[in-house]
Amino acid sequence: MDEELKENIMGALEQVIDPELGIDIVNIGLVYDVDLDEDGLCTVTMTLTTMGCPLAGILTDQVHAALADIPEVKDTHVDIVWNPPWTKERMSRYAKIALGIR
């Protein structure tokens, strides 16, 4: 996958807002990786802020919806992982400022 397409996918994922924090999943640092195979299957490797997060289904649905408009993406698979665990250090500077975290 070329860098431009990866940027498009990450940009689309910035439309997915974590309902608890009100900030997108990319800036919170929940998205670990995206990959697109030759058949157009986009695998989004991500985590959640807490294990057993009740929003997992909602976020997964929103990821599918966000990537539906990208022509190269024919199907989406969301792989939720717990390793490495999410920490606030994964957040972008923007997210930390928005949430008042130093």
Describe the structure.
- The chain is α+β, with helices and mostly antiparallel strands.
- The chain has helices spanning 3-13, 25-28, 56-67, 93-99, and strands spanning 31-36, 41-46, 75-80.
- It is globular, with a radius of gyration of 13 Å.
- The model has no long low-confidence stretch (mean pLDDT 94).
- The termini are far apart.
- It comes from Listeria aquatica FSL S10-1188.
- InterPro entries: Fe-S_Maturation_MIP18 (IPR052339), FSCA_dom_sf (IPR034904), MIP18-like (IPR002744).
- Residues 6-79 form the MIP18 family-like domain.
- This is MIP18 family-like domain-containing protein.
Write the topology of this structure.
Layout: H1 3-13, H2 25-28, E1 31-36, E2 41-46, H3 56-67, E3 75-80, H4 93-99
Parallel strand pairs: 2-3
Antiparallel strand pairs: 1-2
Keywords, separated by commas or semicolons:
102 residues, GMP Synthetase, Chain A, domain 3, 33% helix, 18% strand, Fe-S_Maturation_MIP18, MIP18 family-like domain-containing protein, FSCA_dom_sf
